[in-house]
Amino acid sequence: MATKFEYYSTGDDNAFGIWGVHWLTQTFTPSAAHKITSVKLKLFRLGSPGTVTVSIRATSGGEPTGSDLCSGTEDGNNLTEDGDGAWYGITLGAGYDLDADTKYAIVAKALSGSDALNSANWRGDSSSPTYSGGAGLYSDNSGVDWAGYDVDRMFEDWGTANYTRSLTTTIGLSTTLSRAVTYERTPTTAIGLLASLGTFRNLASWLCIASRDGGS
Description:
CATH topology of the largest domain: Jelly Rolls
Strand content: over 45%
Number of strands: 16
Order of helices and strands: EEEEEEEEEEEEEEEE
Distance between the termini: 76 Å
Shape: globular
Number of helices: 0
CATH class of the largest domain: Mainly Beta
């Protein structure tokens, strides 16, 4: 069952467009390590923006960097046209394991959107943003360079917790096999073979041989 981790979901008073080379991001910092499997964003559309791709990227200097760690899509042409927006969940493929106290970026793009009138729009708080784990940024050249608004965008980070499992297994194998083996060394010779087998992890074994020679 998915759990909500990082989020900023109230106080939105503005919206910012996503189309063509104009990308948006919201950086965030998980307080707990987990596997992110989806995000929820508060979106609406103008015109026909086409497919909206949402991905998670690492950051450097507070800005997205590198390739997508995981990604998913939403049909931007099916977004609400209500300017107040609605929440949409985007599944991020196989997801990605996020480290605690490390900053990541949610990156949104709509490459088929031709202009601001054919765009997906991401709601945000630009009057009193208070999310301390990141910030809203924008790029006008397909993510090559990033600049900042004084804004926090509406987002929710959903996933599954990374549990540390401690398994202690104790195997007690106390099997004693006693066999008397007699062979003709002399008529009065008998060898008693006592094999004690103890097993723990590496299955170590040992053999003790006791010999009594009454005739030689």
